[in-house]
Structure formats: structure tokens, C-alpha cells
Amino acid sequence: MKLTMLGTGNALVTKCYNTCFILNDNNEYLLVDGGGGNQILSQLEQAKISCGDLHNIFVTHKHIDHILGIVWVIRIILQNHKNEGEYYVYGHKEVIEILENMCRTLIREKETKLIGTVLKFITIENNEEIDLIGHRFRFFDIHSDKAAQFGFTIDNEIVCCGDEPYNDTIKDFVKNAKWLMHEAFCLDSEADLFNPYEKKHSTVKDACKKAQENNIKNLILYHTEDKNIKNRKELYTAEGRQYFSGNIYIPDDLESIDLI
Ligand SMILES: [Zn+2]
Description:
This protein is an alpha/beta fold. It has one domain (2-258): Metallo-beta-lactamase, Chain A (4-Layer Sandwich). It contains eight helices and 14 strands. The chain has helices spanning 39-46, 64-80, 93-106, 109-112, 171-174, 191-194, 204-213, 229-241, and strands at 2-7, 20-25, 28-32, 56-58, 87-91, 119-123, 129-132, 135-141, 150-154, 158-160, 179-183, 218-222, 247-249, 256-258. The strands form two sheets. The protein has a seven-stranded mixed β-sheet. It has a seven-stranded mixed β-sheet with strand order 7-8-9-10-11-12-13, with helices on one face. Helix 8 (229-241) links the parallel strand 12 and strand 13. Helix 2 (64-80) crosses helix 3 and helix 7 crosses helix 8. It starts with a strand and ends with a strand. It binds zinc ion. Zinc ion binds next to helix 2.
């Protein structure tokens, strides 16, 4: 399975795009989150992925740096639709209600009349399992106290915690994972500058310590600040190595990683 990061930044970044990504395998694509707007179209174009390929979309939570780009993708899917089969948008109840309402309100009727036939909104429950892109996904509530948010596991090997720090309520999903996708707002050495804890985010050090405790093999960190993108990979990797003995990945926007 291949992971392509469309964006790697937090909500307010301007030097990279908001965190969202594509998983693809068996010639099928899953888009996870959409970032905050129209720039998703540019990110997809640069990644050489067409909106028409995105038959599966999953949205973790309602925050605008995750959900608004999806409205653009849905608009393009419905606008360009010919006969490429059905499209599915998955999320928990709150996400689906907001997204469907936004789409029906903001997109032309010519397109929205295809909702329910060409494009289907699917509400998923905590702990629900669904087969997507040839793999078994299990969605779980990360128990956020900001906005309801779901993460997921893939084949019990790959885990995505969304954009909030690991907490012990999700230990059973995370423990011993081959791959963990986790947020890291900034370096621990720069926590005074970026105040990650005020925003319920964590540092590279925090994320790496949790990964070490949970016996993770490969750790992917994202949803970061963007004040030093040029050296982010090197600086974050160097801090993380002090606390985590597995492999650390600090992807740039548009970077791909083979999750093998
Ligand atoms: Zn976010």
C-alpha cells in the first residue's frame, strides 16, 4: 500500500498544505481528509491523481482544516461524472451531517442531484469494519474532547490516530502496530514558541515516547508547524531519534511512502 501525503501542516500553515493524504493499492484510492480548501485540487494535480479516482473518501472530523477541501473534491467528482461508478464518503454521524449539508447548500443542484446515486454519504459507527481498497479498515473513536474524531486501523498493522495525540483509550488499536501515523505539532525544544499543549497537540518528543512505549516499528509524523519546512525533516528526525528506536518518517507535502 502506498501513502501519498497531500499536506503535512496544521490548521494555520501557509508554507505547506493542511494534513490530508491518499492511500492507494490494487489501483484503488482512498482520500483521508481534504485540508482547508481549493488547494487540494493543486495538491492532487501535482500528485497526478484525479478526483475521479477517489471512489473512497474518509473524513476524520469536522474541523475546517480537514473538511472544507472535501467539498471541492465532491464538487469536481459530481461535475465531471460520466460513468465511472459510485463514490463513497465515509465519516461518523456529525461529519456526514455537516458535509452533506454543506454540499447540498453550497454546490449547484445540477451536481447535488447526484447525491444518493452517484455519490453516497455513509455514516460509520465506532469500531465498525469496512473493506476499502482491498484491505480491512476498522474505524475507532479517538475520544477527543474538542470535536468527535475517528481514527482507523488497516489490517491490524497500520494505525492512523487522526490529528490528536495518542491517549490510552486507543491503546488496543495502537499497540505493536507496524506503522503509526501521528501528529506532532513542533519540536519539544520549540514548545515555548509554538505552544502545542494549548491546542491539544504534542511535540516530536511526546509522539516518539508514546510510539516507543507501544512498540511501534515505523512512525510517521505530520500536522506540524511550518516555520522551518526546509529543515523540518532533519530537525524532527534528530529529536525523535533520542526517544524512539524504530524508523521515523517526517514526510514533506507530496512525498510518498510504501507502507510495507
Ligand atoms: Zn487539524
